[in-house]
Structure to design on (282 residues):
C-alpha cells in the first residue's frame, strides 16, 4: 500500500507543478484537467494521512511513520533545507551547533566566503535584471522574483551553515567533521589511527574508502581510520564505509595539534597505573 502511495505521489507532484507553470505562463488549462489533478492530489494527501494515523496506532513514533511514507532522498533534502534556515538563525544569534563544554571548534568557511558572496551578488543582479525585463508580465515577474530571492537566501544559508557548524575536536578525543549543513560525520576516538596536516589541491578522485570534503578545491587535514571504517551518508542517503577522511580547516595545523593534545589526555586517563599499590584488603 505504501509503495503504491509513493508511486502515485511521485507521479502527481510533477503533474501539479506542470499545471502551475502553465497557469503562471498564461496557458489555458481545461477545467476537467484541473479538477482531475486536484482530485488526485487531495486523494493522495488523505490516503497518506490515513496511513500515517494507522502507523501511529501500531506504536510507531512520528519520525518512524514519516520515514515509512516519505522516501529517504526527499526527507534528507527537506532536512538539509531546514538546517540551512536554522543556520541563518544561529548566525544572527552568534551561536554554534554541536560544540559542547570542553570541545574545541575550528572553522572551515573562510576559503569559500569570497566565492559565495560573489555568487550571491551575481544572483541579486540577475534578480533585478529579470524584474525589469519581465515588467510586462506581472505574474511571471512575481514568480521569478520569489524564486530568485529564495535562491539568494539559500546561498547566504550555505555560508551561515559553514560558519555555525565548524569542525569539532571533542573532549572525549573524538573528531566531528562537517561540510556545511549536508555532512556531519562523527569519528570516534577509538577508530582514529592518525590525524595529520596534509595539503591537497583539486580533490575529487574516486577511491574506495576515501571521503574528501574540499573547500575551494582544497583539503588540509587527513584522518586515517582503523578497519572497519566509519559509515558516511551522502546528501541523498547513499551509504558507504570510509577509512580515510580528508577535509579543510581554516587553521589546520592548530586542529591537528589540538587533537594530539586531546589524544594524550585521553591516553593518560585510560592507561593503567604503573604503581597500583597494595590491594585494599592488605
Amino acid at each position: 500500500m505504501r509503495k503504491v502511495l509513493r508511486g502515485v505521489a511521485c507521479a502527481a507532484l510533477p503533474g501539479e507543478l506542470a499545471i502551475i507553470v502553465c497557469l503562471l505562463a498564461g496557458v489555458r488549462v481545461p477545467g476537467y484537467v484541473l479538477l482531475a489533478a486536484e482530485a488526485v492530489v487531495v486523494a493522495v494527501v488523505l490516503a497518506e494521512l490515513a496511513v500515517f494515523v494507522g502507523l501511529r496506532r501500531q506504536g510507531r513514533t512520528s519520525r518512524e511513520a514519516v520515514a515509512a511514507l516519505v522516501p529517504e532522498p526527499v526527507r534528507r533534502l527537506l532536512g538539509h533545507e531546514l538546517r540551512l534556515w536554522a543556520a541563518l538563525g544561529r548566525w544572527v544569534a552568534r551561536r554554534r551547533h554541536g560544540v559542547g563544554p570542553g570541545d574545541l571548534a575550528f572553522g572551515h568557511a573562510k576559503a569559500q566566503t569570497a566565492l559565495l558572496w560573489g555568487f550571491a551578488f551575481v544572483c541579486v543582479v540577475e534578480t533585478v535584471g529579470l524584474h525589469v525585463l519581465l515588467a510586462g508580465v506581472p505574474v511571471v515577474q512575481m514568480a521569478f522574483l520569489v524564486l530568485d530571492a529564495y535562491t539568494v537566501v539559500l546561498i547566504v544559508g550555505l555560508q551561515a551553515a559553514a560558519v555555525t557548524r565548524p569542525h569539532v575536536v571533542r573532549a572525549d578525543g573524538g573528531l566531528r567533521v562537517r561540510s556545511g549543513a549536508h555532512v556531519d560525520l562523527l569519528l570516534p576516538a577509538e577508530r582514529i589511527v592518525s590525524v595529520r596536516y596534509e595539503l591537497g589541491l583539486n580533490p575529487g578522485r574516486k577511491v574506495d574508502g576515501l571521503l574528501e570534503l574540499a573547500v575551494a578545491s582544497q583539503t588540509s587535514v587527513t584522518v586515517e581510520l582503523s578497519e572497519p571504517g566509519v559509515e558516511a551518508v551522502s546528501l541523498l542517503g547513499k551509504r558507504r564505509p570510509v577509512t580515510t577522511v580528508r577535509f579543510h580547516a581554516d587553521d589546520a595545523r592548530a586542529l591537528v595539534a589540538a587533537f594530539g593534545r586531546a589524544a594524550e589526555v585521553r591516553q593518560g586517563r585510560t592507561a593503567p597505573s604503573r604503581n597500583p599499590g597494595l590491594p585494599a584488603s592488605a
